């Protein structure tokens, strides 16, 4: 692309606009994220917490890179943004086979950037000739920057693909992928390639982190933690991406022990599938773990460990998050925002089939204390608990797993 430097006046306007873009408004970022993750082709990226978080980080990094470059040299060509973060997202995308949707997301982001920048430019000058020159230079700059970044990302993905398709790790990934896809492969051959028995009861796990600066060795230590918590068990761990491990165990880990161990691994999250038998169980438990992971991400849950057995109902109820939120609000009323001791009392009471003595024991509290809390909770509900206990139980489960902006537990 031929590139003529803009006039001094236009350079000043570009610098002024870039300074505005360097501190983007939250609604601009929300619009950018929505565009880059929207659409059926990009759904596998949007549904994956690690990939979607990586795309959001890349959106911010690209926006700030272009803005900073135009503060330093307004109107000059902006080189592609390449960093360890972009290389990491390239590796993750290649390992999921999502190269084309990912590159398409950059183009979708470009359209949002153009709209945002046009609004900024129109706020800088009312002179039509100045505005025309400003938009001509800056929109060509945005287009050129995206072209360079997409080309650099594509080259990085090609390099990652070459590395991925060689070595023992590639063979294990390929074997796991074939098993998950239901491809014809004898159990004996798959076991030989994986070094893992398939004629057993499997518990699958997805172990991941969405913290950008996380120490990734924590993921492998978490896989070892799961194996130790399952007692004598075989372990299979496959690197699904830099920030994700797919794990299988021939046993069922003790979740209390895993939760205690996660205290030493602050960046790690774990989603467990339900135990299931044989090759079909290997596949089924993994799909359950993925469902659990996506539910935690969809609800922005503060919980760092969840099993499919305990969240299956919530995963179903929260497919449409907006409707789930309305259901919680209508069902719980003021109880939705009550202290946890009240909601925990109701959850325990319902879990113990409305037996106050057992619920008090479960909560390590006195029965009279529990009854007082239940009375307070009942007064906060739009309708008495006795009239719709199942609805209240379901709404409280969604509330329990839904993020509230606090720290993960």
UniProtKB/TrEMBL annotation:
Gene3D superfamilies per record: PucR C-terminal helix-turn-helix domain
UniProt domain CdaR GGDEF-like: residue ranges: 187-295
Domain PucR C-terminal helix-turn-helix: 342-397
Keywords assigned: DNA-binding
GO MF entries: DNA binding
Similarity-based family: Belongs to the CdaR family.
Protein name: DNA-binding PucR family transcriptional regulator
Protein species of origin: Streptomyces murinus
């Amino acid at each position: 692309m031929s590139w003529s430097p803009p006039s001094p006046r236009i350079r000043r306007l570009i610098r002024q606009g870039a300074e505005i873009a360097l501190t983007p408004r939250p609604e601009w970022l929300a619009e950018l994220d929505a565009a880059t993750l929207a659409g059926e082709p990009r759904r596998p990226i949007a549904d994956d917490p690690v990939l979607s978080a990586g795309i959001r980080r890349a959106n911010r990094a690209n926006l700030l890179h272009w803005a900073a470059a135009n503060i330093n040299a307004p109107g000059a060509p902006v080189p592609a943004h390449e960093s360890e973060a972009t290389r990491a997202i390239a590796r993750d995308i290649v390992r999921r086979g999502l190269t084309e949707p990912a590159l398409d997301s950059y183009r979708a982001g470009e359209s949002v950037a153009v709209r945002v920048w046009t609004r900024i430019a129109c706020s800088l000058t009312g002179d039509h000739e100045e505005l025309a020159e400003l938009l001509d230079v800056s929109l060509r700059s945005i287009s050129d920057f995206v072209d360079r970044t997409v080309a650099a990302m594509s080259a990085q993905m090609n390099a990652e693909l070459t590395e991925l398709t060689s070595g023992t790790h590639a063979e294990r990934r390929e074997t796991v992928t074939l098993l998950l896809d239901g491809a014809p492969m004898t159990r004996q051959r798959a076991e030989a390639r994986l070094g893992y028995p398939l004629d057993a009861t499997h518990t699958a796990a997805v172990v991941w982190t969405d913290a950008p600066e996380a120490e990734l060795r924590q993921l492998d230590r978490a896989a070892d933690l799961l194996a130790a918590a399952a007692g004598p068990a075989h372990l299979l761990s496959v690197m699904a991406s830099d920030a994700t491990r797919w794990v299988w165990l021939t046993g069922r880990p003790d979740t209390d022990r895993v939760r205690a161990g996660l205290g030493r691994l602050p960046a790690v999250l774990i989603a467990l599938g339900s135990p299931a038998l044989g090759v079909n169980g290997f596949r089924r438990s993994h799909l359950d773990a993925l469902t659990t992971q996506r539910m935690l991400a969809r609800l922005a849950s503060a919980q760092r460990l969840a099993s499919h057995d305990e969240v299956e109902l919530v995963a179903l109820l929260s497919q449409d998050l907006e409707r789930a939120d309305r259901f919680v609000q209508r069902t719980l009323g003021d109880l939705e925002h009550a202290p946890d001791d009240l909601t925990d009392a109701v959850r325990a009471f319902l879990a113990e089939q409305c037996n106050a003595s057992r619920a008090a024991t479960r909560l390590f509290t006195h029965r009279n204390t529990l009854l007082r809390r239940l009375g307070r909770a009942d007064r906060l509900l739009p309708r008495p608990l006795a009239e719709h206990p199942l609805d209240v139980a379901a709404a409280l489960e969604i509330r329990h797993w839904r993020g509230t902006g606090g720290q993960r537990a």
